[in-house]
Amino acid sequence: MKVSDNGRYLVDGNNKPFFYLADTAWKLFYEPSRKEALEYLMNRKEKGFTVIMPCVLGECKKDTNERFCNYYGHEPLKNMDPKQPNEAFFENVDYIIDKANKIGLCIALLPTWGEFVGPLLWGKGPEIFDVENARIYGEFIGRRYKNSNIIWVIGGDRNPKEEKHLEIWRAMAKGIKAGDGEKNLMTFHPTAVHSSSQWLHEEPWLDFNMMQTGTRFDLDNYNLILKDYNKVPIKPTLEGEARYEHSHEFFYRKPPTGRHVTAHQVRKAAYNAVLSGAMGHTYGCRDVWSYNVPSDEVPTRDVCLHWKKAMDLPGAFNMGHLKKLMLDYPFCKLVPDQEKVLVVHGSEEGTCYIPAAISVDKDFALVYIPENQPVYINMSVFKGEYICTLWYNPRKGVYIPGKCFSSTSSFVEFTPPGDDIEPDYVLVLKVK
Fold this sequence. Notes:
Blueprint: E1 2-3, E2 10-11, E3 17-18, E4 20-24, H1 34-47, E5 51-53, E6 55-57, H2 87-102, E7 106-112, H3 131-144, E8 150-154, H4 163-180, E9 186-188, E10 194-195, H5 197-200, E11 209-212, H6 221-229, E12 237-241, E13 248-250, E14 257-260, H7 263-274, E15 280-283, H8 286-289, H9 307-310, H10 314-328, E16 334-336, E17 343-345, E18 356-359, E19 364-369, E20 375-378, E21 386-393, E22 398-406, E23 411-414, E24 425-431
Parallel strand pairs: 4-5, 4-15, 5-7, 6-7, 7-8, 8-9, 11-12
Antiparallel strand pairs: 1-2, 2-3, 10-11, 13-14, 16-18, 17-20, 18-19, 19-24, 20-23, 21-22, 21-24
């Protein structure tokens, strides 16, 4: 994998544009058995995901700082020492990464969750890394997976605000690059609501930017994406942790409260991102990434569904439909309609925002209409005499025939078909 020549997206080993469609799977190396891990991987492959995002050194139990063992009772480190990796634990990681790669999935691998480097807002974590052992651990894990289909994701839900923490992350990045011979790409996973570009955009080891909005209803993630899109030097960007399907709006309260994140909310975040210049998107569900199995214990992560049932929530299927559209109308050719040249009226900030993008050749465009609202399109921006339209149902992945218009029609009003329970549609315009 490498960055495209124009710096906007990734390409695979055959120089083919790679649509980055990820699923957060933080506990993949901990909770499921090998058989269950394969079941999860096949489910995601069948739904169209291209990237899986697990963490090697996962979170501690907040009350005791006790490390989680994997399904087989193995801890990742001996004596919580980054210089003493536990071979038995890493053999299981090897197995899962190898199986994922063999079915065509890339692993966006977090070497560690951020608490082992620095604290989050609410307190001190078990900080086990310093500059020296971060480099040693980085070189170990980089060398171990240099020949795997890997993208490195350092950071682990932390921001490098303090210089001492930034130096540790830099040392880990340097170690990984030394270990894998700079073969694999690298990014940084920050907290919500931030992007890696805020601190690291010009770091030479940062190949693309990653942002996080977390469980935020109707957050204008499109503005954050556009901010990264317009930075110099040009680097690809995407959301690495967005609205978790089925999670409560205020998941951190005990008990969690507020609205549930619906598939509609998940789709809004995804289309806002990709039509604003993101190279892909990351989906997530708390019941899935925690591999939740309901029990009598009080849930600590806003979960209630068995993870095997949660894998088939509608939003996960909808991400595959997003990928289909992005390949049918190549995402690599799209340019965000930042100046509202294409969408001239009808787009409001927030919940009714209408993201749109037009191809560099001005021969097709995609407009996501999140609610049953009218939108006005400027047909004169296309390079062609006639423009035909389709409606794409983002819940079912099917096209509905529209009408054809002359490019001299100037402003044309469109309203989604409204033939489904939920209101969002994608308007596809293409030169005939």
